[in-house]
Amino acid sequence: MALMKLWVCFTAFCSVVFCASLLWTYKIQSRVFENKRQQQIRYVEYIPSTTSITEMEPVANQASTDGFTVTRTLTSKISGESTNSAIHNTDMDPRGDAVLIVTYVRSGSSLVGELFNQNPDAFYMFEPTHELDRASMKRHLTYTDNSQRTMESTGLPKKEFMTDVVKNLISCDFTKVPVNVLAPESPSHWFFIALGRHIHLRTYASCILKYNTTAEDIQCIPLIKRACDKSFKAFKIVVLRMTDLEPILRQFERVKILYLVRDPRASILSMRKYKLIRPVTLQKCNMTCEIVKRCKEHMIPDLVARDRLQSRFPGRIMTLRYEDLADNPIAYADKIYEFIGREMPANVREWLVNTTSGKIEGDVMSDPYGTSRVNSSQTAHQWERTIQPSLGVEVDSYCGEVIQKLGYESFANIQSRKSQERLRKDGQSNRVQSNAK
Fold first, then answer.
1. Are strands 232-237 and 148-149 parallel, antiparallel or unpaired?
2. Which of 86, 199, 374, 430 is a Cys-bridge partner for 358, taking CB atoms 3.0 to 4.6 Å apart?
3. What is the pLDDT of residues 142-153, one digit of tens each?
4. Which residue, among 78, 391, 95, has the nearest Cα to 264 in the 3D structure?
5. What are the two backbone dihedrals, phi and then psi, of residue 126, each rounded to the nearest 5 degrees?
6. Looking at the record, which segments are called Disordered (predicted)?
7. Cβ neighbour number for residue 83 with a 10 Å cutoff
8. Which residues of the chain have pLDDT under 70?
9. pTM of the predicted model, to two decimals?
10. Beta strands 255-261 and 97-102: pairing type?
Protein backbone atom coordinates (compact mmCIF):
# COMPACT_ATOMS: atom_id res chain seq x y z
CA MET A 1 0.00 0.00 0.00
CA ALA A 2 2.85 2.34 0.91
CA LEU A 3 4.56 1.50 -2.37
CA MET A 4 1.37 2.33 -4.25
CA LYS A 5 1.13 5.77 -2.60
CA LEU A 6 4.80 6.39 -3.32
CA TRP A 7 4.25 5.49 -6.99
CA VAL A 8 1.25 7.82 -7.26
CA CYS A 9 3.25 10.68 -5.75
CA PHE A 10 6.16 10.02 -8.08
CA THR A 11 3.85 9.94 -11.11
CA ALA A 12 2.22 13.21 -10.09
CA PHE A 13 5.63 14.84 -9.59
CA CYS A 14 6.76 13.70 -13.04
CA SER A 15 3.58 15.08 -14.59
CA VAL A 16 4.15 18.46 -12.99
CA VAL A 17 7.76 18.52 -14.16
CA PHE A 18 6.71 17.51 -17.68
CA CYS A 19 4.03 20.18 -17.87
CA ALA A 20 6.43 22.80 -16.55
CA SER A 21 8.95 21.74 -19.15
CA LEU A 22 6.38 22.08 -21.93
CA LEU A 23 5.36 25.52 -20.68
CA TRP A 24 8.99 26.67 -20.52
CA THR A 25 9.67 25.36 -24.03
CA TYR A 26 6.57 27.16 -25.33
CA LYS A 27 7.68 30.43 -23.78
CA ILE A 28 11.17 30.07 -25.24
CA GLN A 29 9.79 29.34 -28.73
CA SER A 30 7.31 32.20 -28.48
CA ARG A 31 10.11 34.58 -27.55
CA VAL A 32 12.24 33.38 -30.46
CA PHE A 33 9.26 33.72 -32.82
CA GLU A 34 8.53 37.25 -31.60
CA ASN A 35 12.19 38.27 -31.93
CA LYS A 36 12.24 37.02 -35.51
CA ARG A 37 8.97 38.77 -36.27
CA GLN A 38 10.27 42.07 -34.93
CA GLN A 39 13.52 41.56 -36.81
CA GLN A 40 11.57 40.93 -40.02
CA ILE A 41 9.54 44.11 -39.52
CA ARG A 42 12.72 46.11 -38.94
CA TYR A 43 14.13 44.82 -42.25
CA VAL A 44 11.46 46.84 -44.02
CA GLU A 45 10.59 49.69 -41.69
CA TYR A 46 14.12 50.93 -41.01
CA ILE A 47 15.04 51.28 -44.68
CA PRO A 48 15.51 55.00 -45.48
CA SER A 49 12.73 56.45 -47.62
CA THR A 50 15.29 57.25 -50.32
CA THR A 51 16.19 53.58 -50.78
CA SER A 52 15.37 52.25 -54.23
CA ILE A 53 12.73 49.55 -54.25
CA THR A 54 15.20 47.32 -56.07
CA GLU A 55 17.52 47.62 -53.08
CA MET A 56 14.79 46.05 -50.94
CA GLU A 57 15.11 42.67 -52.66
CA PRO A 58 17.84 41.38 -50.29
CA VAL A 59 15.66 42.55 -47.41
CA ALA A 60 12.70 40.52 -48.63
CA ASN A 61 14.92 37.52 -49.29
CA GLN A 62 16.41 37.64 -45.78
CA ALA A 63 12.96 37.88 -44.24
CA SER A 64 11.86 34.87 -46.27
CA THR A 65 14.78 32.75 -45.05
CA ASP A 66 13.72 33.54 -41.49
CA GLY A 67 10.36 31.98 -42.20
CA PHE A 68 8.31 35.12 -42.74
CA THR A 69 6.83 37.02 -45.63
CA VAL A 70 7.35 40.78 -45.61
CA THR A 71 4.12 41.54 -47.43
CA ARG A 72 1.88 39.56 -45.09
CA THR A 73 3.21 41.28 -41.96
CA LEU A 74 2.92 44.79 -43.36
CA THR A 75 -0.57 44.31 -44.79
CA SER A 76 -2.01 44.59 -41.31
CA LYS A 77 -0.20 47.88 -40.90
CA ILE A 78 -1.84 49.34 -44.00
CA SER A 79 -5.28 48.31 -42.74
CA GLY A 80 -4.73 50.13 -39.46
CA GLU A 81 -3.61 47.44 -37.01
CA SER A 82 -0.35 49.29 -36.44
CA THR A 83 0.46 52.99 -36.29
CA ASN A 84 4.21 52.57 -36.68
CA SER A 85 5.75 55.82 -37.88
CA ALA A 86 7.43 54.07 -40.81
CA ILE A 87 3.99 53.65 -42.38
CA HIS A 88 1.92 56.38 -40.71
CA ASN A 89 4.36 59.23 -40.19
CA THR A 90 2.24 62.25 -39.40
CA ASP A 91 5.33 64.48 -39.36
CA MET A 92 6.15 63.64 -42.98
CA ASP A 93 4.77 66.04 -45.60
CA PRO A 94 2.51 63.71 -47.62
CA ARG A 95 2.35 66.12 -50.53
CA GLY A 96 6.02 65.91 -51.49
CA ASP A 97 7.11 66.88 -54.98
CA ALA A 98 5.09 65.44 -57.84
CA VAL A 99 4.45 66.05 -61.52
CA LEU A 100 1.39 65.00 -63.49
CA ILE A 101 1.99 64.36 -67.19
CA VAL A 102 -1.42 65.26 -68.60
CA THR A 103 -1.86 64.38 -72.24
CA TYR A 104 -3.78 62.45 -74.89
CA VAL A 105 -3.55 59.06 -76.55
CA ARG A 106 -0.69 58.83 -79.09
CA SER A 107 0.95 62.08 -78.05
CA GLY A 108 4.44 60.87 -77.16
CA SER A 109 3.66 60.42 -73.48
CA SER A 110 5.44 57.08 -73.21
CA LEU A 111 8.72 58.78 -74.14
CA VAL A 112 8.14 61.63 -71.70
CA GLY A 113 7.12 59.21 -68.95
CA GLU A 114 10.36 57.30 -69.38
CA LEU A 115 12.28 60.42 -68.36
CA PHE A 116 10.96 59.63 -64.87
CA ASN A 117 10.64 55.85 -65.11
CA GLN A 118 14.38 55.67 -65.78
CA ASN A 119 15.12 57.88 -62.76
CA PRO A 120 16.11 55.66 -59.79
CA ASP A 121 15.06 58.38 -57.34
CA ALA A 122 11.52 58.77 -58.69
CA PHE A 123 8.29 56.91 -58.09
CA TYR A 124 6.61 56.67 -61.50
CA MET A 125 3.24 55.20 -62.47
CA PHE A 126 2.18 54.59 -66.07
CA GLU A 127 -1.47 55.64 -66.58
CA PRO A 128 -2.77 54.64 -63.13
CA THR A 129 -6.29 55.83 -63.97
CA HIS A 130 -6.50 53.54 -67.01
CA GLU A 131 -7.88 50.65 -64.98
CA LEU A 132 -10.70 52.74 -63.55
CA ASP A 133 -12.50 52.64 -66.89
CA ARG A 134 -12.24 48.85 -66.94
CA ALA A 135 -13.13 48.57 -63.28
CA SER A 136 -16.14 50.84 -63.61
CA MET A 137 -17.50 48.64 -66.36
CA LYS A 138 -17.25 45.73 -63.93
CA ARG A 139 -19.07 48.04 -61.52
CA HIS A 140 -16.95 47.15 -58.51
CA LEU A 141 -13.62 48.14 -57.02
CA THR A 142 -11.59 46.35 -54.35
CA TYR A 143 -9.83 48.22 -51.53
CA THR A 144 -7.04 47.21 -49.17
CA ASP A 145 -9.51 46.28 -46.42
CA ASN A 146 -11.07 43.78 -48.86
CA SER A 147 -14.22 45.86 -49.18
CA GLN A 148 -16.00 46.00 -52.53
CA ARG A 149 -17.28 49.37 -53.69
CA THR A 150 -18.59 50.96 -56.85
CA MET A 151 -17.98 54.41 -58.26
CA GLU A 152 -21.69 55.13 -57.99
CA SER A 153 -21.67 54.44 -54.24
CA THR A 154 -19.36 57.41 -53.67
CA GLY A 155 -21.98 59.85 -54.88
CA LEU A 156 -19.34 61.55 -57.03
CA PRO A 157 -19.24 61.92 -60.80
CA LYS A 158 -16.72 59.66 -62.47
CA LYS A 159 -14.17 62.41 -63.16
CA GLU A 160 -14.29 63.64 -59.57
CA PHE A 161 -13.80 60.07 -58.38
CA MET A 162 -10.72 59.73 -60.59
CA THR A 163 -9.41 63.07 -59.36
CA ASP A 164 -9.72 61.86 -55.78
CA VAL A 165 -7.81 58.69 -56.68
CA VAL A 166 -4.98 60.78 -58.14
CA LYS A 167 -4.91 62.89 -54.96
CA ASN A 168 -4.53 59.75 -52.86
CA LEU A 169 -1.78 58.48 -55.15
CA ILE A 170 0.11 61.74 -54.71
CA SER A 171 -0.13 61.45 -50.92
CA CYS A 172 0.58 57.67 -51.03
CA ASP A 173 -2.65 56.98 -49.12
CA PHE A 174 -3.29 53.57 -50.66
CA THR A 175 -6.07 52.71 -48.23
CA LYS A 176 -8.20 55.03 -50.37
CA VAL A 177 -6.92 53.79 -53.75
CA PRO A 178 -8.62 50.78 -55.38
CA VAL A 179 -6.35 47.76 -55.62
CA ASN A 180 -7.55 47.59 -59.24
CA VAL A 181 -5.45 50.72 -59.82
CA LEU A 182 -2.36 49.52 -57.97
CA ALA A 183 -2.43 45.99 -59.41
CA PRO A 184 -4.45 46.21 -62.64
CA GLU A 185 -5.63 43.34 -64.82
CA SER A 186 -5.17 40.49 -62.38
CA PRO A 187 -3.75 37.85 -62.66
CA SER A 188 -1.48 38.65 -65.64
CA HIS A 189 -1.04 42.34 -64.70
CA TRP A 190 0.05 42.91 -68.29
CA PHE A 191 -0.71 46.62 -68.34
CA PHE A 192 1.46 47.19 -65.26
CA ILE A 193 4.49 45.06 -66.13
CA ALA A 194 4.64 45.28 -69.95
CA LEU A 195 7.59 46.95 -71.66
CA GLY A 196 9.34 47.76 -68.40
CA ARG A 197 6.81 50.45 -67.56
CA HIS A 198 7.75 50.36 -63.86
CA ILE A 199 11.41 49.37 -63.82
CA HIS A 200 12.01 50.46 -60.22
CA LEU A 201 9.01 48.51 -58.92
CA ARG A 202 10.31 45.05 -59.79
CA THR A 203 9.95 43.69 -56.27
CA TYR A 204 6.34 44.82 -56.14
CA ALA A 205 5.67 43.46 -59.64
CA SER A 206 7.13 40.09 -58.68
CA CYS A 207 4.89 40.04 -55.63
CA ILE A 208 1.60 40.64 -57.46
CA LEU A 209 2.54 38.07 -60.10
CA LYS A 210 2.54 35.40 -57.38
CA TYR A 211 -1.20 35.72 -56.88
CA ASN A 212 -4.29 35.13 -59.00
CA THR A 213 -6.87 37.49 -57.53
CA THR A 214 -7.15 41.15 -56.64
CA ALA A 215 -7.89 40.20 -53.03
CA GLU A 216 -4.57 38.36 -52.82
CA ASP A 217 -2.72 41.28 -54.42
CA ILE A 218 -3.51 43.31 -51.29
CA GLN A 219 -0.65 41.51 -49.55
CA CYS A 220 1.83 43.30 -51.83
CA ILE A 221 0.59 46.87 -51.33
CA PRO A 222 3.14 47.69 -48.57
CA LEU A 223 5.95 47.29 -51.11
CA ILE A 224 4.54 49.89 -53.49
CA LYS A 225 3.70 52.05 -50.48
CA ARG A 226 7.38 52.01 -49.51
CA ALA A 227 8.42 53.07 -53.01
CA CYS A 228 5.80 55.83 -53.10
CA ASP A 229 7.23 57.37 -49.95
CA LYS A 230 10.17 58.56 -52.02
CA SER A 231 10.61 62.31 -52.26
CA PHE A 232 9.52 62.63 -55.89
CA LYS A 233 6.58 61.18 -57.80
CA ALA A 234 5.46 61.28 -61.43
CA PHE A 235 2.20 60.07 -62.94
CA LYS A 236 1.26 59.82 -66.59
CA ILE A 237 -2.45 60.66 -66.96
CA VAL A 238 -4.51 60.39 -70.16
CA VAL A 239 -7.99 60.16 -68.65
CA LEU A 240 -8.20 63.43 -66.73
CA ARG A 241 -8.28 66.71 -68.58
CA MET A 242 -6.79 70.10 -67.71
CA THR A 243 -10.29 71.15 -66.73
CA ASP A 244 -10.20 68.57 -63.89
CA LEU A 245 -6.94 69.63 -62.25
CA GLU A 246 -7.69 72.75 -60.22
CA PRO A 247 -8.68 70.81 -57.06
CA ILE A 248 -5.34 68.97 -57.18
CA LEU A 249 -3.34 72.18 -57.63
CA ARG A 250 -5.20 73.82 -54.75
CA GLN A 251 -4.63 70.93 -52.37
CA PHE A 252 -1.00 70.17 -53.24
CA GLU A 253 1.12 73.29 -53.44
CA ARG A 254 4.20 71.41 -54.67
CA VAL A 255 2.54 69.51 -57.51
CA LYS A 256 3.26 70.66 -61.05
CA ILE A 257 1.52 69.89 -64.33
CA LEU A 258 3.39 68.96 -67.51
CA TYR A 259 0.82 69.47 -70.25
CA LEU A 260 2.05 67.41 -73.19
CA VAL A 261 0.59 68.06 -76.64
CA ARG A 262 1.22 66.76 -80.12
CA ASP A 263 0.06 67.92 -83.53
CA PRO A 264 -3.50 66.50 -83.67
CA ARG A 265 -2.95 65.38 -87.26
CA ALA A 266 -0.04 63.19 -86.16
CA SER A 267 -1.95 61.78 -83.18
CA ILE A 268 -5.06 60.93 -85.18
CA LEU A 269 -3.07 59.31 -87.96
CA SER A 270 -1.17 57.26 -85.37
CA MET A 271 -4.42 56.14 -83.74
CA ARG A 272 -5.69 54.90 -87.07
CA LYS A 273 -2.40 53.13 -87.81
CA TYR A 274 -2.47 51.21 -84.52
CA LYS A 275 -6.23 50.56 -84.69
CA LEU A 276 -6.99 52.55 -81.55
CA ILE A 277 -10.23 53.97 -82.94
CA ARG A 278 -13.27 51.81 -82.28
CA PRO A 279 -14.57 50.10 -85.44
CA VAL A 280 -18.12 51.20 -84.64
CA THR A 281 -16.89 54.82 -84.63
CA LEU A 282 -15.22 54.40 -88.02
CA GLN A 283 -18.36 52.83 -89.43
CA LYS A 284 -20.52 55.61 -88.07
CA CYS A 285 -18.56 58.66 -89.19
CA ASN A 286 -15.17 57.54 -90.53
CA MET A 287 -12.47 59.70 -88.88
CA THR A 288 -14.65 62.77 -88.31
CA CYS A 289 -15.93 61.76 -84.87
CA GLU A 290 -12.43 61.16 -83.54
CA ILE A 291 -11.18 64.46 -84.98
CA VAL A 292 -14.03 66.40 -83.38
CA LYS A 293 -13.54 64.61 -80.07
CA ARG A 294 -9.81 65.29 -80.01
CA CYS A 295 -9.94 68.99 -80.86
CA LYS A 296 -13.39 70.35 -80.08
CA GLU A 297 -14.17 68.29 -76.97
CA HIS A 298 -10.70 67.88 -75.46
CA MET A 299 -7.92 70.15 -76.68
CA ILE A 300 -9.76 73.47 -77.02
CA PRO A 301 -11.31 73.28 -73.51
CA ASP A 302 -7.94 72.14 -72.17
CA LEU A 303 -6.12 75.09 -73.70
CA VAL A 304 -8.66 77.46 -72.16
CA ALA A 305 -8.23 75.71 -68.79
CA ARG A 306 -4.45 75.82 -69.16
CA ASP A 307 -4.47 79.60 -69.59
CA ARG A 308 -6.72 79.98 -66.56
CA LEU A 309 -4.59 77.67 -64.40
CA GLN A 310 -1.38 79.43 -65.43
CA SER A 311 -2.76 82.72 -64.17
CA ARG A 312 -4.00 81.20 -60.91
CA PHE A 313 -0.98 78.97 -60.29
CA PRO A 314 2.01 80.72 -61.89
CA GLY A 315 5.10 78.61 -62.44
CA ARG A 316 3.26 75.31 -61.99
CA ILE A 317 2.10 74.60 -65.55
CA MET A 318 4.46 73.75 -68.41
CA THR A 319 3.25 73.13 -71.95
CA LEU A 320 5.48 70.80 -73.93
CA ARG A 321 5.11 70.04 -77.62
CA TYR A 322 6.20 66.48 -78.34
CA GLU A 323 7.79 67.64 -81.59
CA ASP A 324 10.13 69.99 -79.70
CA LEU A 325 11.31 67.15 -77.47
CA ALA A 326 11.76 64.86 -80.48
CA ASP A 327 13.78 67.49 -82.37
CA ASN A 328 15.98 68.46 -79.40
CA PRO A 329 15.73 65.66 -76.80
CA ILE A 330 18.46 66.69 -74.38
CA ALA A 331 17.66 70.41 -74.41
CA TYR A 332 13.96 69.89 -73.71
CA ALA A 333 14.54 67.09 -71.20
CA ASP A 334 16.75 69.52 -69.30
CA LYS A 335 13.93 72.09 -69.44
CA ILE A 336 11.51 69.53 -68.00
CA TYR A 337 13.81 68.75 -65.09
CA GLU A 338 14.48 72.44 -64.57
CA PHE A 339 10.72 72.99 -64.42
CA ILE A 340 10.37 70.48 -61.59
CA GLY A 341 13.42 71.89 -59.83
CA ARG A 342 15.67 68.88 -60.25
CA GLU A 343 18.73 67.84 -62.21
CA MET A 344 18.40 65.13 -64.84
CA PRO A 345 20.39 62.04 -63.72
CA ALA A 346 23.27 60.90 -65.91
CA ASN A 347 21.66 57.52 -66.59
CA VAL A 348 18.49 59.22 -67.85
CA ARG A 349 20.53 61.45 -70.13
CA GLU A 350 22.38 58.42 -71.55
CA TRP A 351 19.15 56.49 -72.01
CA LEU A 352 17.55 59.42 -73.84
CA VAL A 353 20.47 59.77 -76.25
CA ASN A 354 20.41 56.06 -77.07
CA THR A 355 16.64 55.93 -77.42
CA THR A 356 16.04 58.97 -79.60
CA SER A 357 18.98 58.22 -81.89
CA GLY A 358 17.89 54.62 -82.41
CA LYS A 359 20.91 53.03 -80.70
CA ILE A 360 18.80 50.60 -78.64
CA GLU A 361 18.66 47.20 -80.30
CA GLY A 362 15.45 45.29 -80.89
CA ASP A 363 12.30 45.61 -82.93
CA VAL A 364 10.15 48.00 -80.94
CA MET A 365 8.78 50.10 -83.74
CA SER A 366 5.74 47.86 -84.18
CA ASP A 367 4.58 48.43 -80.60
CA PRO A 368 2.33 51.47 -80.15
CA TYR A 369 3.60 51.94 -76.60
CA GLY A 370 7.30 51.55 -77.36
CA THR A 371 9.71 54.41 -76.81
CA SER A 372 12.74 53.54 -78.93
CA ARG A 373 12.78 55.21 -82.32
CA VAL A 374 15.17 55.06 -85.29
CA ASN A 375 15.26 58.84 -85.15
CA SER A 376 12.84 60.68 -82.91
CA SER A 377 12.73 63.80 -85.09
CA GLN A 378 11.96 61.85 -88.25
CA THR A 379 9.29 59.86 -86.42
CA ALA A 380 7.62 62.99 -85.06
CA HIS A 381 7.23 64.54 -88.52
CA GLN A 382 6.65 61.38 -90.53
CA TRP A 383 2.90 62.03 -90.70
CA GLU A 384 3.53 64.98 -93.05
CA ARG A 385 4.74 62.53 -95.71
CA THR A 386 2.07 59.88 -95.21
CA ILE A 387 -1.21 61.63 -94.42
CA GLN A 388 -3.88 61.66 -97.12
CA PRO A 389 -4.50 65.23 -98.34
CA SER A 390 -8.25 64.86 -97.76
CA LEU A 391 -7.65 63.83 -94.12
CA GLY A 392 -5.17 66.66 -93.60
CA VAL A 393 -7.70 69.19 -94.88
CA GLU A 394 -10.47 67.71 -92.71
CA VAL A 395 -8.38 67.83 -89.54
CA ASP A 396 -7.45 71.44 -90.26
CA SER A 397 -11.10 72.35 -90.68
CA TYR A 398 -11.97 71.10 -87.16
CA CYS A 399 -8.63 71.68 -85.42
CA GLY A 400 -7.55 74.99 -86.94
CA GLU A 401 -7.79 76.85 -83.62
CA VAL A 402 -5.71 74.21 -81.81
CA ILE A 403 -3.10 74.15 -84.58
CA GLN A 404 -2.82 77.94 -84.50
CA LYS A 405 -2.67 78.23 -80.69
CA LEU A 406 0.08 75.61 -80.40
CA GLY A 407 2.16 77.13 -83.20
CA TYR A 408 1.85 74.34 -85.77
CA GLU A 409 1.73 74.90 -89.52
CA SER A 410 -1.57 74.68 -91.33
CA PHE A 411 -1.85 71.78 -93.74
CA ALA A 412 -2.02 74.22 -96.66
CA ASN A 413 1.33 75.72 -95.63
CA ILE A 414 2.86 72.27 -95.20
CA GLN A 415 1.73 71.26 -98.69
CA SER A 416 3.12 74.48 -100.13
CA ARG A 417 6.45 73.98 -98.35
CA LYS A 418 6.71 70.37 -99.49
CA SER A 419 5.90 71.39 -103.05
CA GLN A 420 8.64 74.03 -103.03
CA GLU A 421 11.11 71.51 -101.61
CA ARG A 422 10.28 69.05 -104.40
CA LEU A 423 10.72 71.77 -107.04
CA ARG A 424 14.05 72.76 -105.53
CA LYS A 425 15.26 69.16 -105.48
CA ASP A 426 14.07 68.62 -109.05
CA GLY A 427 15.91 71.77 -110.13
CA GLN A 428 19.11 70.62 -108.45
CA SER A 429 18.78 67.19 -110.04
CA ASN A 430 18.28 68.72 -113.50
CA ARG A 431 21.36 70.92 -113.08
CA VAL A 432 23.46 67.92 -112.08
CA GLN A 433 22.27 66.01 -115.14
CA SER A 434 22.99 69.01 -117.41
CA ASN A 435 26.51 69.39 -116.03
CA ALA A 436 27.11 65.67 -116.53
CA LYS A 437 26.26 66.02 -120.22
1. unpaired
2. 374
3. 999 999 887 764
4. 391
5. -90, 110
6. 417-437
7. 10
8. 1-96, 134-139, 152-156, 358-374, 429-437
9. 0.74
10. parallel
